[in-house]
Design brief:
339 residues, alpha/beta, Rossmann fold, 2 domains, six-stranded parallel beta sheet, five-stranded mixed barrel, 24% helix
Length: 339
């Protein structure tokens, strides 16, 4: 089949055959690779290609993508199907396909992009190809391993609170200190935009869970996510970093995020926590949640810092430093806090 547009999550898949016979009988798993035909354009008008560029899609186009889940409070909730469906939905632009469960009200008029399954991508033995750890060796989590770098954890009170931007400008600040910086996006749904942004802001290397072939980390166990972490740290350590910035997607109450911040061996790796929030009330609640776990943030930032009034509200109620994006780039301010 010619002119198949490959999504970025299938970058490790080179040689395959198409098995159409099993498309109604085989029950897919997260990461299973398949060929889909675009039926109707909705929210997603493109898929991110293996080179990171957007490939625009139209009805009748064929794409190589994978089955997966998604949890995004401002976007879609979706799951790997438990049976064959006549239609599936694009859950994420990185090439995640599944069954849509719910979506934010802002997408109700346009809906999700609809696709149908053409067939599964199989190897020479006839087995369905799975993207997870396809060509990448997994590394078991080493809680007691000595790390010769500091780890800063960028958390958000909710989705779209500004945690990626905080991580990016933190990386830029450290770059200004002549530090070698690695960035890891540990959880979320595959999409290379965040890593590209942090890299452009100054990180020497930026990598996420999709390096391990995961289309999403939603519904993964803490053990699985910690294996991803160790695998990514092993990759980042090749540059001998001075600092590693780790971002966890979504908010503090999201299932996987909540499990991680309550996991002592994971949090023991972290030197300092930065909290991004959309408003002053989420700042108060976020501080409360993290302080009860003995991980009071060292810095507050995020969307609320675009509002001088909200900055004033926050400063009147906490002594934790508040940093705007300009503050991260101001050497005197940055060096005073991140000595």
């Amino acid at each position: 089949m010619k002119n198949i547009k490959r999504s970025i999550i299938t970058k490790s898949v080179n040689d395959y055959k198409i098995n159409r016979k099993i498309r109604t009988s085989y029950i897919p798993k997260a990461g299973d690779v398949a060929i889909f035909e675009i039926l109707e354009i909705g929210k997603h008008k493109a898929v991110q290609g293996i080179n990171g560029n957007n490939n625009y899609i139209f009805p009748g186009d064929k794409i190589l993508a994978v089955f997966g889940t998604r949890y995004a409070t401002a976007q879609f909730e979706g799951y790997v199907p438990k049976k064959h469906h006549s239609k599936y939905q694009i859950l994420g632009q990185g090439g995640v396909i599944g069954v849509l469960e719910s979506m934010h009200a802002k997408f109700e008029d346009i809906g999700a992009t609809q696709v149908k399954l053409i067939g599964y991508a199989v190897n020479e033995e006839g087995n369905v190809i799975n993207s997870i750890y396809n060509g990448v060796e997994s590394k078991p989590f080493k809680a007691n391993k000595k790390r010769n770098y500091k780890i800063y954890l960028s958390l958000g009170a909710s989705m779209d609170s500004g945690k990626t931007t905080t991580a990016a400008f933190l990386s830029r600040g450290f770059r200004g200190q002549k530090k070698k910086v690695g960035f890891i996006k540990l959880t979320g749904t595959v999409y290379a935009k965040d890593c590209s942004f942090v890299r452009d802001c100054g990180a020497d290397t930026a990598i996420d869970f999709s390096y391990c072939g995961y289309p999403s980390t939603f519904l993964n166990t803490t053990k699985e996510i910690l294996t991803i972490l160790e695998t990514l740290l092993d990759r980042v350590e090749r540059i001998d970093p001075d600092v590693v910035v780790i971002e966890i997607a979504d908010g503090l109450l999201q299932k996987e995020t909540k499990a991680l911040i309550n996991h002592k061996p994971f949090m023991n790796l972290v030197d300092k926590v930065l909290l991004s929030c959309a408003d002053s009330l989420s700042v108060a609640n976020g501080i409360s949640i993290l302080s009860k776990l003995n991980h009071t943030p060292m810095v507050l930032s995020g969307m609320f810092t675009a509002s001088p009034l909200m900055i004033k509200e926050v400063k009147e109620n906490t002594k934790i430093p508040v940093l705007t994006l300009d503050d991260f780039m101001e050497p005197t301010t940055f060096n005073r806090i991140f000595k």
